[in-house]
Write a structure and sequence with these properties.
By secondary structure, the protein is an all-alpha fold. It has helices at residues 3-24, 37-70, 114-120, 129-155, 157-180, 186-200, 204-226; strands spanning 89-91, 110-112.
């Protein structure tokens, strides 16, 4: 398994595990008649949405593993030797479309693209050594890109990525709604904390967003409900 693939697996597995923790946590603090009923309703939605995200994250992990097994590595002939080939290439990306940078300080690899060659290479049909060179690269690029598309289709990766994305957005919607509601008891505090944890599991940006939306409120609620017990 390449280091890139390992990082993708760890990231997706960590997200699924974090949400599983939210869902599998002990039963909610017994709600009282004095708790905000809308917050209680959102708490129930959060449990269902967290479970849906966990399932979607696992589906994506399995699809990604299948894609990596099915898709061949980038042929060496498609790795551009220097930046002079930028017009005929695209920056290397992972299966999710994110830019890939080496762990060292080396520049991002540039990969020949059949579309980029067609758009930018006037010598593709010229009967010369240069023309033959780019025709060979173009043919190799087409073959590799076809293999990528076949792997994506067979693994169901695109549908899995989409499912996780929309499941994450649903957690974000609930988190925002929870942030707008007033917690009247510790039961409400727990719901807000779980909303923060669930949305944070989606990714780094979502973690920052959840902390911004709920962090100060949680701190204030802790002081309000338990501050008098601290000596």
């Amino acid at each position: 398994m390449t280091s890139l693939t390992r990082r993708l697996f760890l990231r997706n597995t960590a997200a699924a595990g974090a949400v599983a923790t939210v869902v599998a946590a002990p039963g909610a603090v017994a709600a009282t008649a004095s708790e905000n009923p809308e917050l209680l309703r959102l708490g129930a939605e959060l449990v269902a949405a967290s479970e849906a995200f966990r399932a979607a994250a696992e589906r994506k992990r399995v699809a990604l593993e299948s894609y990596v097994a099915l898709c061949p590595a980038v042929p060496e002939i498609l790795v551009a030797p220097h930046n002079a080939e930028m017009w005929f290439t695209e920056g290397e990306t992972d299966p999710e479309g994110n830019s890939v940078y080496p762990a060292s300080n080396k520049a991002q690899r540039r990969i020949y693209s059949s579309h980029a060659i067609e758009q930018s290479c006037p010598n593709l049909k010229v009967r010369s050594d240069l023309g033959r060179h780019y025709r060979q690269i173009h043919a190799e690029a087409q073959t590799f890109e076809t293999s990528q598309e076949e792997a994506r289709t067979a693994s169901g990766l695109d549908a899995a990525i989409s499912a996780r994305y929309f499941a994450g957005r649903e957690l974000g919607r609930i988190m925002e709604a929870v942030a707008k509601q007033e917690a009247l008891t510790p039961a409400g505090l727990v719901i807000k904390a779980r909303a923060l944890l669930a949305h944070s599991a989606v990714g780094p940006w979502e973690q920052s967003r959840a902390q911004f939306a709920l962090g100060p409120d949680l701190a204030q609620l802790i002081v309000t409900f338990f501050g008098s017990d601290v000596k």
